[in-house]
Amino acid sequence: MCYCVPGELCVYCKKFCLYHSEPNEKEEHLQTCEKKEKYLENLNNSQEIECRICFELVLSKPEADERKFGILSECDHPFCLSCIRNWRSSAPTLVRRFRSNRNVKTCPMCRKLSYHVIPSTIWYFTMEEKQEIIDNYNTSCK
C-alpha cells in the first residue's frame, strides 16, 4: 500500500477515504455509501412504475410535486401521491366496529384497509425497503 494515499478506496464512492486506524468511521462510511447506492438503484428502477389510478409513470409526471409515490401500508399497489389522496378524499369512508370514532379508507385495487398514505420519492422492491420507508416517515412525523 502506498503511504502517499490517505486511505483505502471506497468501492461505492471511489474515494480514498477508508482508514485502518479508524475502523468505526470506515464502517460508517461504507454503510452510508451503500445506502446511497441502494437509493440510486431503487430510484432508477422506480422510473418504470405506473400509477394504478391514472396509468402514468409516477416519476415522469410534469410537475415536480406530483413525482411522488403514495404508499399504502397494507398493500403493494403503486399510486401517485396526488391520485391516491384524491381517490381517498372522494371515496366513502368505512367505520370499523371496534374503532367507531376513526374513519378508515381502503386500497382502490384490493380493498385492504389503510389508515394513512406514506409519501415517497422512490418505490420499494422488498418488504424491508417498504418498512424502512414507513419507519422513516413515521420518525419524521414525530
UniProtKB/TrEMBL annotation:
Alphabetical keyword list: Metal-binding, Transferase, Zinc, Zinc-finger
Classification via Gene3D superfamilies: Zinc/RING finger domain, C3HC4 (zinc finger) (3.30.40.10)
Domain of life of the native organism: Eukaryota
Organism: Acacia crassicarpa (northern wattle)
Pfam families given in the database record: zf-C3HC4
Biological process per Gene Ontology, one example term: protein polyubiquitination
Keyword Disulfide bond: no
GO molecular function: ubiquitin protein ligase activity; zinc ion binding
Domain spans labelled RING-type: 51-111
Name the UniProt record assigns to this protein: RING-type domain-containing protein
PROSITE patterns: ZF_RING_1, ZF_RING_2
InterPro entries for this protein: MKRN-like, Znf_C3HC4_RING-type, Znf_RING, Znf_RING/FYVE/PHD, Znf_RING_CS
